[in-house]
Write a structure and sequence with these properties.
This protein has 148 residues and is mainly beta. It has one domain: Immunoglobulin-like (Sandwich), CATH 2.60.40. It is built from 1 helix and 8 strands, in the order βαβββββββ.
């Protein structure tokens, strides 16, 4: 059985400076000549919540499992990887080139704290699925007051 690397970070919220890079990337898309080569595409992501879990599904077809990395803390998850370009054949000429290759990174804020012990990830048919158990809400513990 192969595993997807999941690392638990100290504080991914410090990575929000990278969020600024994502915003910059949005403006670069107006002029594709300005797109930075180290991050050439952004996979589509769905995040949804059940009563017990947060589930993230990312569409990352063509990425090898060993080229994926998931890092998380209580407040955010970082998904990164690389889609490798197909080898060029001598004399090859493109008629249409729409598939983006290269590195990607997504930093997603989580709507609730998660339990790091209850995190799993799977990769099937080009979809990365990360399931994270919610951390139980702080339960109030009532202390009985006794007569003296």
């Amino acid at each position: 059985m192969e595993y997807i690397k999941i690392r638990f970070g100290k504080n991914l919220e410090e990575m929000h400076s990278r969020l600024q890079r994502s915003i910059d990337d949005m403006f670069r898309r107006v002029n594709p000549m300005l797109i930075m080569p180290e991050q050439t595409w952004r996979p589509q992501i769905d995040i949804y919540e059940t009563p017990d879990e947060i589930i993230i599904i990312g569409e990352i077809s063509g990425v090898q499992k060993e080229d994926l990395e998931v890092e998380l803390d209580q407040g955010a998850v970082r998904i990164s990887g690389r889609r490798r370009e197909i080898p060029h054949v001598p004399g090859m000429r493109y008629h249409l080139a729409e598939i983006a290759y290269g590195s990607f990174e997504r930093i997603l804020l989580l709507p609730v704290p998660i339990n790091p012990e209850g995190v799993t990830a799977s990769y099937t048919n080009g979809l990365l699925k990360i399931t994270m158990a919610k951390r139980p809400r702080d339960q109030v513990h009532r202390v009985p007051i006794e007569d003296e």
